[in-house]
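so my prof wants the structure for this chain in the tokens format not the other one, which i didnt know existed until like an hour ago. anyway here's the sequence
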Amino acid sequence: MSLAFDKRTTATSSVLYIALALWCCFVAAPGIIAGSGAFGPFQLNGGPISGWFFALWFLGYLAQFGVFMWIMALVRQQNIIWWLVASLLPWAIDWTMPVNPLFAAVWIPLTLAFAAWILMATRGEESFKEHAVHAVGVVLSVDQPYMNVVINNVYIKRKVRLRIERSDGTPPYEGVLNGLFMIGDIPSPGDRLPLLVDPANPQRFQGETA
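here's what i got, hopefully its the right format
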């Protein structure tokens, strides 16, 4: 099982490297090209802007967002902050670097740092799954937040208090799972949820997926 996991992890990591590199290129390319003066001077005070300029922005935004959706499918995580950054960062680059190319000294490192954050978080998640202990979480209660946050019109956030029963013989204990659940598939008290638990940190656990 470990060998199969290692092969799958290696393959996923290789594709993820490629996807993140493509995303960085698509995010930065429109701002860099426009900042180089390829489409003439750019002004925010109402001056004329080339139609090719807008076409470049539009295609670049669609390309980076499509690649980012691919990245999220690879990492299998739903991180609100990641989606927010991926939505806003291209706009920041596209509307500042053409005005002053020196903004590249700010946005390019931030773009690379963001990609590195996704990569490191994904590798940490893979390491966790490799060493995790299987468990069952018996739902004790489900707390609804003051505001319902719906992601992609599919997932909703809930705080679930569980009694955790591990497969390695550790006595049952309680924990809280802050997770995203599909609308219409929110657990109820008494439900049993398959979990993965970090043996080094019993309070670090997550729902087990196929």
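also thought this was worth mentioning. The beta strands are 133-143, 150-151, 155-166, 173-182, 192-198, 201-207.
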